[in-house]
Amino acid sequence: MERLFLAPKIYGKIKKNISQIAKSLKNVKLKLENNTISIEGNSLDEYNSLNVIKAISCGFDLKESSLLKNEEFMIEEVRIKDYVKSSNRLRQVKARIIGAEGRALKTISLLSDCFIRLSDNSVFIIGKTGDVKIAMGAIISLIKGSRHANIYARLEHKPDFGEDLGLKEPQTE
Quick one: pLDDT at residue 152? Predict the structure, then answer.
């Protein structure tokens, strides 16, 4: 059994949508009480459900969070305070990540094929493993001061490995 403490604001959001969340997480039993959620089921389902609940608490919607039930998807956190010390610089960095009218965040999200949310002093990323690592690199570069254009150019030329089915013969020269 897994237990997760939820902040009052998050608890209200989870409580309001508990029936939809429970429907999405079929193989586990959810129980809400006193700002905690208990998850009961087999260990893999508990782990996946815990990730889904954490993603919802970070600001992702149920559809995006439900991707975490699939083993190909993961959630990662980039803590801005690990890279920035002053509160003034923190505010500047958060503004750089969001961009004008949210365009920087949307562009990085589109180019990296990930869902990205800024919550408090952290950036949360949901996507396939390789894509998340690329998006994390872009966010960290932004935090460290790289130009938006350089980051977008790097993301546009990201390697696309695709799925290797082993059907092609190795080329010999």
Answer: 93
Q: Judge if 104 and 60 occupy the same domain.
A: no
How is the chain classified by DSSP, letter by letter? -EEEE--HHHHHHHHHTHHHHHHHSTTSEEEEETTEEEEES-HHHHHHHHHHHHHHHTT--HHHHHGGGSTTEEEEEEEGGGT--SHHHHHHHHHHHH-GGGHHHHHHHHHHT-EEEEETTEEEEEEEHHHHHHHHHHHHHHHHT--HHHHHHHHHT--------S-SPPP--
Task: Output phi, psi for 119, to 5 deg.
Answer: -135, 120
The total number of structural domains in the chain stands at 2
- The answer as to whether 171 is a domain residue is no
Q: Report if residue 162 sits inside a domain.
A: no
Helix axes 87-98, 129-144, angle to 10 degrees: 130
Tens of pLDDT, residue by residue over 68-102, are 988 899 999 999 999 998 999 999 999 999 999 99
Confidence (pTM): 0.83
